[in-house]
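Sample pair:
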Amino acid sequence: MTSIKRNLPRLTAMLLTCLFVLPAGLSSHAFAEEQIKSSALKNNETELNRPLPFTNDFSITAEGEFAKDKAAEMLERYPELNANPYAILVEFQPDADDKDVQELLADTNSQIVDFYPTVNWYLIETLSGNRNTKNSFESSSLVKHVTYDSTLRLTSLNTNDPLINDLWGLDGNHGIDAEVAWPLSSNATEVIVAVIDSGIDPLHPDLNGVLWNNDDEIPNNGIDDDANGYIDDTYGWDFTGEYDNIPQDGHGHGTHVAGTIAATRNNNEGIAGVANNVKIMGLRFLDKSGNGITSWAINALEYAVANGAVISNNSWGGGPYETPLYNAIAAAGNAGHLFVAAAGNSGNNSDTYPMYPAAYNLPNILSVAAIASNGNLAGFSNYGINSVDIAAPGVDILSTMSSESDACVSNPPCYTSWNGTSMAAPHVSGVAALMLGVNNGLTPSEIIQIIEQTTRTTATLSNKIKFGGELDGGAAVATASQSGSITFVGYTPGQSVLQGSTIDMTATAIGSDDSDISQTIEWKDSNGTSIGLGSTVSFVATNVGTLTITAEAIDPDGSLIQRNAYFEVQAPSLHFTNQDGFIVGNAATQITTEWDWSGPQNETEALKTISTEKLQVESTTQLEYVLPDLRTPVDIVIPSDTQGTIRDVIVGLRINHSWPADLKIQIIHPDGSEVLLADHNGNGSHRDGSEVWGEGSRSCNGDLAYFSDDASESISSRAKPFSGFSQPIEPLQNLNGKAANGDWTLRITDEWSQDDGELFCAQLLLTTTSPSTTNTVSNSVPLTDQNATWSIPDPLTFNGLFRFSFDNSSIGSALDKCCIQVGLPDPPSAATATRIEDAITVTWNANSGNNQITNADSFVVDAYEQGQSKSAGTCLSSSNSCTIPNLLSSLDYGISVRGVNEVGTSTPLSVNVAIFDNQITQGESGLKDFIETNDYFGSSLASSDFNGDGIMDLFVASTGESTELTTSEGIVHAIESFPDLTNNSLIIRQSSDDDNGTNSGFGTSLASADFNGDGMDDVAVGAPFEDVNNYENAGVVHIFYGGNESLTEGAVFHQNTGGIGGAAAAGDRFGSSLATGDINADGFDDLIIGVPGEYRCWPRVCGAVGGINIIYGSANGLTSANDHYFTQNSRGIGGKSSVGDQFGASVASGDIDNDGFDDVIIGVPGDYRCWPRVCGAVGAINIMYGTGNGLSAANDHYFTQNSSGVDGVSGVGDEFGAFVTTSDINDDGFSDVIIGTPGERISSRNNAGAVHVLYGTNNGTTTANDTFLYVSQSLFTGSSQSNARFGTSVTVIDNDLIIGAPGTTINGATAAGAIYYLRE
């Protein structure tokens, strides 16, 4: 089992009832062991040799407080645990030395706490965690095998279905046939059966007389009298964390199982068990939640074998394949122990999805499936032609219940009905005990062979389980008790015969003295009526159903020898033999149908094709059918105005759900009649992404999962995604004859927690007695021809779904399987697809032909990952275009466009769409300049509408670019109408002082806004390494004013400009960062200038700490009057100035608190912080808020990467805050803060870079829901590079992010630079 939650029990209500079968005594006879052939061995294996006994070579060094007691406590507290968190199971190498083993234990902080001598495995307590210790042991040469001590669980599946009033599991229809078995076993000897489970209620009056008693143990004297290692184990043991001599059942499961096996018969109390010769050994290894671990199970099994239990019932499972448990069961088999196991309740084929321990390939395991009282395989039951042996009653099974169980809802004694293979297995255990009671020399393989030989074969089980049918306890006990044998010649169990045909049988009877007594055989029919004598018989099968023919002979010793043969008698029939699925019928197409006819010869009949009505509801963006995890039904109504009464119903589904086994699916007729379609089918999580019920398009145009009575396979036999046709759990024919019109309801119930999904389509195909269109293929078809052909007319005059039909044959009507699609739409043509990041827009031409019947009414478009069959996205359109959102920009997609009409969909028109490349470099087509080393394209970014055309433009700086004037002066790309790259120009520095241009860093920072209020955006370009009055790298800001035609250079500002705060000094780097905003809300944009090298002195120290200047806009443009100047030592600002802080290395502006005044964010990438054992520059940001008087330091906010809610942690060199900007990314009216961290280390790549987004609120910036971006994410093209410095710059256009990575290597050119375009 793949999930813990799938196996927790579901409890039903309680029923008090009694069923007594009063047997008459019959004598029993010994069984001739020589009649059992070697073919009895399971799966053609040879029996295992008995292993040499193992000795404990290593010291048990602890009592296992954690491995046992704490593990039990944790399992009870956290039932979803997959394994014992404090232990592993280990087998050491034969030559492992004790000293070396003790050293390994010491090195891993672990200790030996238990030893299992039959399998030579040890339980190791792991105080350093089971995963780490397991890894250490796996790498040690001392260890042969190691595995987790996995969690095991109950296999019961209990529901709230109405309780039954009798023990149908004892009857002779589909039960064990106690009426035959009990008289034959009236003198059976005692057999000990171990119930390895959740314990037993020893006080239950139907069980207290059948409990095993350890006669060698004196009760309650505190002494291990029998020296078996267990003190006062008078009737069993508790192997859970409680580990004592009281296996009390706090859950109820074990008590229920025990009652089915051996509840006391004829005591005027409650119920009767299968066997009355059993003593129940109660061995508890499942806690009150129904969970246990492998080591406890091994302990219990070893105890059972050592103390005389020859059969154990094991109604549990779900762990992985585990060698220690396998070996323990094998060792038990070599000791003559039969291990009866429940097959599991996942509705899976155990050949494909094995459920252990039932699926272990061992000759002493008998795996049991569950059937209902009608003989059908239970919808929840596992099955498997190779791994599941026999079926037994497992639905609505009434049995004893522990008084300490939650299922005991009245005064004790309690009785409750439960469902599950857990309930089926004890029927088999009880019958096996009766068999041993009448023949105590039987081996496990012989018991299994007899059960196989006497299986009541049925058509419904013949292809599902190994023995092909149900447990026939009466026949099995009879065969076990007899001395001679009867063998049928040429008989195939479960074969079908036609009603009225003659059955010829031949048998050989051999007496206990080896004499041939075949001529004395008496043959009897199902009613016990004699039908012949001798070795052969002929019998006419007159009644439809299961026919039993019994051969009986009297052995020379006077005992009865008996053997049953089973046949499925079928009525004469007319049925179509076409396969499930849809057939396309175009104009002039010839469609051939075939049928089987077993009625009168020379009969003719009219063959027609009749229309089937298709009704459906479909999920859309306006109406989504969500399947939430609420454990309450979701009802989807499907209206129908279809006329007539129902001849056939087919239901189609397209669902995505992350755990299909959670779902119970029903269709409800307008009159309230319900049909169960699926019940927890398809165990396991979704198939590699999503599809569960159906595949392809997330609409009614995908490959739906259809439920039809005519399907060749049951839903229980199929695996996800169930596309095509499956038989439902309950037959849809129960709705035949009802009115077709009214509101139908599809009911989907998610009965477990943690998973959810969505229904994309629910479809009804209704075939009625009043079809809207009927076509006559032939008025007189000889039914013995068994085939005919329909020629579809050309041109078409009708369309729809059609089925062949015979309406009035002598043995009734017949309807072909669904369906012929006549008049599918013409396919579209000329499809094209464009993509912008995660969205693909598709356009096409709709082909409208001469015949309107085949015109498309609408279109469906699906995107598929290349090489995948699952739809990654779907859009529906009534026009000729649509967009599929939420795709991954890093993947190629195949696009399928299909026309849709009321019949179905056209053939697809396909187009491939390449990966969205959101990386832009100077080598892009239409972008001026080309890729060169150290260009640093993307060093800074800005966006605005500088030409006033209403479309945003993008400015991108390449600070290392050389111009005609100087080397590495820097340029700025002005890209009009971004993301169109075709119309762009270059901005270069125009100062007359050419010497200052070399390495001036022109374009290191960019900002754009309307400083003079003329309606056209202006551009500020920082040149922080430009010299001022011989002060090297003092820094300058150049202003270019916008116009209709071009940008014109205006003012030049530096710290020696009059009115500007501070003074120009070498290394100030004035203009390293720029931002704009209307700080004082006067209608003119203002300019914030970062000065990260600003020099300041304090007592005993001087150095570069950083500052900012704010220059205010006016009608005349930017003016230095009223300039504001701040450092980190300004009153109210968080942090404090330190040498190397680089306060002002980045600046940004936006109205974070939505008060009408723009606020300022200041990056401090060198901000210094200390932790234990390390100090360094990690980075921070300050946020200062705007007021009517301009910028204020009051209420300054201060953040680092260690602030609560910010992704990542502060690291030396991260440069958190090296770039900041703002934008209302989430459209909530508050400006959000975007923070570049170009020094961020990504997957061992130093300085790869990242970007954080902190969101604005009415209380300012919050760290809640911080967004963290880096190039290796699927949103971006390529992967993170060392020294790319992604996040050095960021700008926003219409909530789309453009992020600079100037250090990116492009085509081998180091630091050529790139920008990334990330759409909203």
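The first strand starts at residue 83 and ends at 92.
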